[in-house]
Amino acid sequence: MNPVEIIIKKRSGETLSKDEISFFIKSYVDGTIPDYQMSALAMAIFFKGLNDEETVNLTFEMLNSGETIDLSEIENFKVDKHSTGGVGDKTSMILAPLVASFGLPVPMMSGRGLGHTGGTLDKLEAITGFRVNLSVDEFKKTLKEVGFAMIGQTEKICPADKKLYSLRDVTGTVSSIPLICASIMGKKIAEGIDGLVLDVKTGSGAFIPQKSETLKLAKGLVSIGELAGKKTIALLTEMSQPLGKNVGNWLEIRECVEILRDGEGAKDLVELTLALSGTMLFVAGKSKTIKEGIELCRKKLKTNEPFELFRKSVKFQGGNLALIDNPESYEKSKFEFDFVAEESGFVESFNNYEIGMVAVSLGAGRTKTTDKIEPKAGMIFQKKTGDKVQKGETIARVFTDLEKSIEPAKSRLAKSVKISKSYSQKNELIRNLIDKNGVHEWNDFC
Known about the structure:
By secondary structure, the protein is α+β, with helices and mostly antiparallel strands. It is built from 17 helices and 14 strands. The chain has helices at 3-11, 18-29, 35-48, 52-63, 91-100, 120-124, 136-146, 159-169, 177-190, 211-227, 249-262, 267-283, 290-301, 305-316, 321-325, 352-364, 406-414; strands at residues 79-83, 106-109, 148-151, 195-202, 231-238, 246-247, 335-340, 345-350, 378-381, 388-389, 394-400, 417-420, 430-435, 438-441.
């Protein structure tokens, strides 16, 4: 087969056969097809899309490009959560130890930042010494000993996705529904889970802001999960402002540590974490309803058990436990400044994409695959949508080591928030639940 002809075929909007998809992915993994041709196909897919059959074929080709993990030796229902990405989206660090504290193994194969969004692996690596690149045997041992494990892809698990994931980040092809479906579900099926809860983001900080398109993504993810024999539920959640208060790798770890330690924190972050955790308990059969699962998780979060499991995880994966026990001891940024309100009123809305890109410019993300993350960089927001604000009052405290990023960040942040004279009604945090039976109102379950 000729890779150029396959690129042209998809560029023209034609349907690719299973064999053509298989050829292209196998050849990309073995190095026969170079990055620039894979980039060309990804861009063609971005503009022309894939039908359901093509998406399923691509997903299973990703899955079959490497090994899968057999977790049958580990007892109990194994359940994971995956988010499609957002700004300040840090639920995994709270949710994993929380769900594991119920005796449910939580195997998490996570990713790095993409575009304007942060990545779980980058956040975990902000904990000095924390190892995310575990072997399969180390992954299983951690899962057995701790109850959960958060790792990156091994070289042998979905290698096609590992290569394509970085390529999408720097070629403007992140927000393609078929590519997102194949990337997420290939990894999740490979990691040996029994069930999966998906946090599918919508709004200005999501890869796909439009609700109608996000619903298509959620349905596609659930369909592939169920096809693979995994009980799968998706929640459609709002990403029109930063989740919680902190944006940036270490800052987000710090916020999670405070919630695990104190049992409370930013209302939206805690509410979403409990919703996802409660749904995981329901999927695993630990609760009869999602509502019951949420209440069980709410009570458990008030205990010390999830925090101690997180500490155990950090120690087990080589992280500096002293930073978890004393977050204030973390090295400070060279530069700090306040992003302040230019007028009095109420915070009507944020442009969350802009906030995410500011975080990248401060050093918290990448514009090239070779960029080094600065773990201290980021923002702590003191105002949320609907909050009253006075002229000159701080909306967010900003941290960076890059002096040249300060003035551009100030300018971009000023354009990222809209202040009105009257109170603005906040958007619902969780909009819908999507399962194999269709789309439902979230309020029917909680």
